[in-house]
UniProtKB/TrEMBL annotation:
The keyword Nuclease does not apply. This is ADP-ribosylation factor-like protein 15. Mg(2+) binds at residues 30, 47. Gene3D superfamilies: P-loop containing nucleotide triphosphate hydrolases. GTP binds at residues 23-30, 69, 126-129. Belongs to the small GTPase superfamily. Arf family. InterPro entries: ARL15 (IPR042292), P-loop_NTPase (IPR027417), Small_GTPase_ARF/SAR (IPR006689). It holds the Pfam family Arf. SUPFAM superfamilies: P-loop containing nucleoside triphosphate hydrolases. GO terms for molecular function: GTP binding; GTPase activity; metal ion binding. The keyword GTP-binding applies. Keywords: GTP-binding, Magnesium, Metal-binding, Nucleotide-binding.
Amino acid sequence: CFRALCCKGPPPPRPEYDLVCIGLTGSGKTSLLSQLCSESTENIVSTTGFSIKAVPFQNAILNVKELGGADSIRKYWSRYYQGSQGVIFVLDSASSEDDLETARNELHSALQHPQLCTLPFLILANHQDKPAARSIQEV
């Protein structure tokens, strides 16, 4: 018992993975990351620029760079792609047709980007709880 309690070293470090989280303004990127980090989702404001959150899981840590989704910021997204090991693309499934088309164009642009095209993508159709939400097939 003594040896098990005293001689046990620190736990092995959890692997860390760097992800980038992109999507249009209002798609729910900040809310998603706040939920994953067990933070309050009240009084959330849109991200201007970028933010980084460490999302802890039992076997790994995800370091997520969330990039603001405003039109004036999207043109700079590619500057933050380097070193990413995966992509989370969040879209508002209850958005207007125009916004959905813009999101589709941004997704296709990201899928074709040389630094992202070989990475795993998670496409999250957010706001499924809203009455105007589209199904997965419609999205």
